[in-house]
Amino acid sequence: MAAASTENAMRSSGFARVLIYLILILFALFYLLPFGIMLINSLKPLSEITGGNMIALPRDWTIAPWLSAWSTAQIGVEPTGLRPYFINSIVMAVPAVLLSTIVGALNGYVLTKWHFRGATIIFGLLLFSCFIPFQIVLIPMARILGILDIAGTTPGLILVHFVYGIGFTTLYFRNYYAAFPTELVRAAQIDGAGFFQIFWRIMLPSSGPIIAVSFIWQFTNIWNDFLFGASFASGGGAPMTVALNNLVNSSTGVREYNVHFAGAIMAAAPTLLVYIVAGRYFVRGLMAGSVKG
Amino acid sequence: MAATTDTGVDFRTRLQTWLPKLVLSPSLAVMLIFVYGFIAFTIYLSFTDSRMLPSYNWVGWDNYERLFRVREWNIALTNLAIFASLYIIICTLIGLTLAILLDQKIRGEGVLRPIFLYPMALSFIVTGTAWKWMLDPAIGLENTMNLWGWESFTFNWIKDREMAIYTIVIAAVWQSSGFVMAMFLAGLRGIDNEILKAAQMDGASNFQMYRRIILPQLRPAFLSAFVILSHLAIKSYDLVIALTGGGPGNATALPATFMYSYTFTRNQMGIGAASAVIMLMTIAAIMVPYLYAELREKK
Amino acid sequence: MGFLDINNVTKSYGAVEVLHKVDISVEEGEFLVLVGPSGCGKSTLLNMIAGLEGISSGEIKIKDRVMNGVHPSRRNIAMVFQSYALYPNMTVGQNITFGLEMHGTPKPERDKAMADVAKLLQIENLLTRKPGQLSGGQRQRVAMGRALVRNPDVFLFDEPLSNLDAKLRVDMRTEIKKLHQKLGTTIVYVTHDQIEAMTLSTRIAVMYNGYVQQLGTPKEIYDNPANLFVATFMGSPAMNVLTVRLEDRNGALHALTTGADGQERALRIDNASAAYAAYKGREVILGIRPEAITDPEGADRNARNIQALTNTVGVTEPAGADTFVTMTLAGKDCIARMRADADVRSGQPFDFAVNMDKAVLFDPKTEDRIA
């Protein structure tokens, strides 16, 4: 059979294959368990968690922890539940994702199809900005947001995520457009199309996969961000991750683990959903961005 | 399209050569201000006696000298060394193992691969919440084992000053190793199958094939994994906050949590800025040569 | 004053000059082929005519209008690209009319023009398809349609056949030639394939190292190459190149070389040009095409100076219509082209007939033709 194999030219014995499957399944359990247990326990009354076995299924199924997490749990000082923060995160993520994708697409187009002297240096500067530790910009950013009078607000966070997302979106579109035939741009020039017409009529219609990648990447990063949210949003303006952390780490009262879990799953749901729906693009995008640099 | 000295150019052509630069320039301006300008500002602050608010009194290397005398910073550096090296090594080992095993024409690869990968779609806060509880001796793993009859089982690292940093490693590995698997899998799938057939005809065993032929060809994947993981390790902040809050005491402090607490809670902005600069320098030492090599290769 | 004038045009990138003072004048209706190995500057020159690359010095004129700095879309040219460069998101019909749309032609006129071109190229049934659904040959037709519909002054072709398989390439070559004869358009065509150059062109510019090595009709280029590069680049199998010694024997000029046995062979040169005299007693390079070395029965009946040359046969390569035979002259392999049924055997002595009318001489230092 070795000659017929396509993925690699190898074969292994029966015992080895059993071992391979065993290891893979153990790892699958390792990855599934924390989230699975969280899901099971979010449907238990608190007494079953504190007094019982974490792997056991609920004896009394209940969605009360979910309702509480969504609308009545104490976040900081207000008993608002996570709902307003979930909305904050959506209002923050959607415009930031859209803006950074549009700008990234235009930058990628310019850097690959209208190459000029210094373009590589500009790209290098953009690329490096993807990898800076954001601690280095926290202090000045706080001041600028204060000067612009958007400190602690969602527009402030949109600006921050937009600015620090450009590097990645540009990287994605540049790598994608680098493989896009330049002859098409030349043909369009001869046909009389201008800079924006070429972008709009020729490049964008062929950019579906990379737009998806950029959306997914940016959405995941922005939704999951904690550092900027914790630094630049206060009280009612906080995004979901910050609110969840407040819920889980609030030191007052009884620890309602089941409510914490329900909240954690809510915080994870949008990105998980995106991952399940478009996971293939997600991986491919990460490959395009990181492995090929 | 290349820059040459061309004579007598009509308006349309001239517009077409200026438009691209015009379109790129806002991004460049934003980048110069919000990234490089801010870096410069933070570096400047690290040489001033800023406390709660920025001050412009130059104090030279004072903050750096004080920084390295602070016990918490030295703990943070030690923790980072432990965390980063274990995180990188374990993620690479697990990632590589899973990728090689998945590459053996496994039935159900389509199910397994997304299971290995999904944790990376989660926020570190969610990961931290899940693991904080799993590792809590009173209700998590230890409690469950005890209830199952294994009375002597103890697993209380998260409460133990000496061991708490390793719980961060566990949760971080859980989140990132699937991603490393995907990188290695892509590398494995990119290897020319004819080379493997040739090696097989040369009489190489499976083990030899991996050691002599396949792993050497995965060098770029190893390099990328190292660069990405080390950069993630240095930036790690959310996970520590969610899992241990830096505790017990400050046993799990990392440079990122140190910077935040010194700058915003302890009002030692100068020292906070100095610590941020050191973080940046560490990442730059890894990223700049890598990016430089990547960009040169493309040309 | 031609239809398309390339006057003293150079191209430099920074300090590096990649095209040196190119001077070509193309008449209306001409089919000019720029041929040369990759990196010779032929595509750069084509892109400069198209306006896709700037002109460093000199000028390019179409119909007496200076084109330097004029936007590609205002030059009234059309181009067919190597990859065809069909817009993947548009249908064939939209691809063909995109240029007209960009130039503001009203829809009814566009549709009329599209229909005419589709009929001419027999692609009416493809108009609603996307390029991804077409075969290589169909894409090639659509790319030509997109160029034709604009009714341009000059057509530019950039290696348009190099992505097709061998058989289709020959068919499309014929079709391009038919189209040119039918429409009488002016064409500048870039290729690295010397057979395409020979078959299609009315004139050829052979380029190498950024210089036009020779500009002339296919026959001139083939029979009277200006230098060693042109001689060896054009023709397949390539022209045989031997280092020989020029000497007088019995009152006539002879080229002296050695056979496979190491013994001298002398080939008489008739009606030697005056320039040969200066090389008497010196080494020169003799170029002779494979078809000028045959078996005695297969020799050209109109030739005036056929020299017999006995030599050991190396290998024979039957190619169907012809048989190629190698032999060693001056220590190098030399190829002869014979009729398929010539009785030649490997390792045996054979009487070759060398048509010295076709021999050309080159200076060994400058590699220029001695004439």
From TrEMBL, chain A:
Subcellular location as annotated: Cell membrane
Cellular component annotations (GO), alphabetically ordered: plasma membrane
Range of residues in the leader sequence: none
Membrane topology: Multi-pass membrane protein
Segments crossing the lipid bilayer: 18-40, 85-109, 121-145, 157-177, 198-220, 226-247, 259-283
Keyword terms: Membrane, Transmembrane, Transmembrane helix, Transport
Domain annotation ABC transmembrane type-1: ranges: 86-278
GO BP annotation list: transmembrane transport
Family the entry assigns: Belongs to the binding-protein-dependent transport system permease family.
PANTHER family linked: ABC TRANSPORTER PERMEASE PROTEIN, GLUCOSE IMPORT SYSTEM PERMEASE PROTEIN GLCU
UniProt protein name: Carbohydrate ABC transporter membrane protein 2 (CUT1 family)
Biological classification of the source: Bacteria, Pseudomonadati, Pseudomonadota, Alphaproteobacteria, Rhodobacterales
From TrEMBL, chain B:
Protein name according to UniProt: Carbohydrate ABC transporter membrane protein 1 (CUT1 family)
Chief location of this protein within or outside the cell: membrane
Lineage of origin: Bacteria, Pseudomonadati, Pseudomonadota, Alphaproteobacteria, Rhodobacterales
Residue stretches making up the ABC transmembrane type-1 domain: 77-292
Cellular location(s): Cell membrane
PANTHER family: ABC TRANSPORTER PERMEASE PROTEIN (PTHR30193:SF42)
UniProt record similarity statement: Belongs to the binding-protein-dependent transport system permease family.
Keyword set includes Membrane: yes
Transmembrane spans: 22-47, 80-103, 115-135, 163-188, 269-293
Cleaved signal peptide residues: none
Swiss-Prot/TrEMBL keywords: Cell membrane, Membrane, Transmembrane, Transmembrane helix, Transport
GO cellular component, one term: plasma membrane
Pfam families hit by this protein: BPD_transp_1
Domain of life: Bacteria
Membrane-related topology note: Multi-pass membrane protein
GO annotation terms (biological process): transmembrane transport
TrEMBL record, chain C:
Database matches in InterPro entries: AAA+_ATPase, ABC_transporter-like_ATP-bd, ABC_transporter-like_CS, ABC_transpr_MalK-like, ABC_transpr_MalK/UgpC-like, Mo/tungstate-bd_C_term_dom, NA-bd_OB-fold, OB_MalK-like
SUPFAM superfamilies documented for this protein: MOP-like, P-loop containing nucleoside triphosphate hydrolases
ABC transporter domain location: 4-234
Gene Ontology biological-process entries: carbohydrate transport
A single MF term (Gene Ontology): ATP binding
Domain of life: Bacteria
ATP-binding listed as a keyword: yes
Protein family membership: Belongs to the ABC transporter superfamily.
PANTHER family: ABC TRANSPORTER ATP-BINDING PROTEIN, MALTODEXTRIN IMPORT ATP-BINDING PROTEIN MSMX
Protein name per the record: Carbohydrate ABC transporter ATP-binding protein (CUT1 family)
Species for this entry: Roseicyclus mahoneyensis
Source taxonomy: Bacteria, Pseudomonadati, Pseudomonadota, Alphaproteobacteria, Rhodobacterales
